[in-house]
Amino acid sequence: MSNIRQREKLGLQGGMKAVSRIEGRGEPKIGIDEFMSIVERFGISRANRERIRALLRDEPWEAGPFLANYYSGLKETKVQAYEAMARRVFGVPFAIATSSGTGALHAAFVATGVGPGTEVICPAVGFIATAQAVVLARGVPVFCDVDASLAMDPAKIEKLITPRTVALAPTHVMGSVCDMGAIMKVARRHKLRVVEDCAQSCGAHWHGQRLGTIGDVGAFSIAAYKIVGGGEGGLLIAKQQRMWERASQVVESGGLWRPERFAAPRYKGELFCGANYRLSELEAAIDVVQLRRLDGMVKRFRGVKQRILKRLKPYREILPQKLNDAAGEVGYTLRFFPADVRLAEQIAAALNAEGISCSTRGRKSGPDWHLASFMYPVLARELASGDNCPLTCHEYRKRGGPARYQAPDCPVADDLFARLVTVNLNQWYSPRDCANVAAGINKVLSAYCKEGGENVWM
Ligand SMILES: Cc1ncc(COP(=O)(O)O)c(C=O)c1O
């Protein structure tokens, strides 16, 4: 057959292919420059960057890496490795990597059945993201006052429960631990779901059980300021498959999480309008390493705090933060409440002058979104759409809403937060550093307060 006839014949019929090879030689979509941009972000010196660049020139980049979790062709992506690590560390069957703690909370509330006409009981001290995530799930946050642990006061939950309440959302604040035994008792009595916000206490335990595994769902922020985390990220852990599936639909609404992406729903309610809170491969690459180090970090922080606490003397004017499980908390802060705001300011200034890093809000400081009474967008029912649903919507009114936010709804939180002194601890303190910090705290407290009384530190 002539060459011309061979070319005209369809490839399907054994003819010559129209395109037998591509001449154009491209560059990888993601290659040396992108890699070097990450190296630069790590703060590597210019001289060493040049060395790394020279080494990379020998690498066969081809198309370059594919930096997304799905369809990468890898045996295990970094996101999958991070989720597997989370399942192992927390001992749960389900874990979802998310791009933020807020995303994890939003998915958690949807997973636990929050929606129009429902309420979730949130603590008066924590962070606004928890209450906002309830609103994102189209529920209404109701604030519960705290006790001297700065966590939700279990004795005050019951009077906030209405026929609309579907979940409790205890936040474990600044390395400490909520009284999960008492909270779970209330939840069981009223058949409520529990979403633990563990963003500030990743790695802590409540009497031997890891935080995040006691309630139905645990939500974590894995952002740079948290105990572990590189930049921005989050994590959701769950014990029940259905909750994991509902949360997955929020985190990855394109169906990529399903065994068959485009299959019809396997059951009513499997598919609904979700969002995208997928974690990036680059962030996951950092977080899988960070999560592996979690227990080591927590052990060091705990050791430091306990060494210091054991050396502190009781003072009549000082109420130490109540520790619901002194041995289980992370312990990166040591907190106490002087008798009034002025005393708190004096003590904080004196501690800083002793070289002990600490802070207090003080009388003149402005709003702070760690305290419910300052959470304006929630309290004012401000939503981007201006229609104020779900905070005042028809469905909610029909069921007896809206919740009223009236200052002071949570007077204990307002009072304790104003006079709280927070000493920041460092996991790398040596035993001598701990002794020096404890001596410094005793020195300052002895100068301003009277030794003695019942207020012991642990
Ligand atoms: C208690 C609490 N919940 C949720 C979040 C939100 O996490 P992210 O910033 O990763 O969305 C934070 C962050 O500071 C937090 O402290």
Give a concise summary.
With 458 residues, the chain is an alpha/beta fold. 35% of the residues lie in helices and 12% in strands.
List keywords for this structure.
single chain, 458 residues, alpha/beta, Aspartate Aminotransferase, domain 2, seven-stranded mixed beta sheet, four-stranded antiparallel beta sheet, 15 helices, 13 strands, 35% helix, 12% strand, binds pyridoxal-5'-phosphate
Q: How would you sum up this structure, described in words?
A:
It is a single chain. The protein is globular and about 105 Å long. 35% of the residues lie in helices and 12% in strands. The chain contains 15 helices and 13 strands. The longest helix is centred in the middle third of the chain and has 18 residues, at 294-311. The model has no long low-confidence stretch (mean pLDDT 95). Among the domains are: 27-65, no CATH class; 78-293, Aspartate Aminotransferase, domain 2 (3-Layer(aba) Sandwich). It has helices spanning 3-8, 32-41, 46-56, 78-90, 101-111, 128-136, 180-189, 241-251, 281-292, 294-311, 341-353, 376-379, 394-398, 411-418, 431-448; strands at 94-98, 119-123, 140-144, 165-168, 193-197, 205-206, 209-210, 217-221, 234-238, 318-320, 333-338, 358-360, 421-424. By secondary structure, it is α/β, with parallel strands linked by helices. The N and C termini lie far apart (94 Å). A 7-stranded mixed beta sheet has the order 1-9-8-5-4-2-3, sandwiched between helices. α4 (78-90) packs parallel to α9 (281-292) and α10 (294-311) packs across α15 (431-448). It binds pyridoxal-5'-phosphate. Pyridoxal-5'-phosphate is lined by residues 100-102, 105, 126-127, 129-130, 171, 197, 199-200, 221, 223, 234.
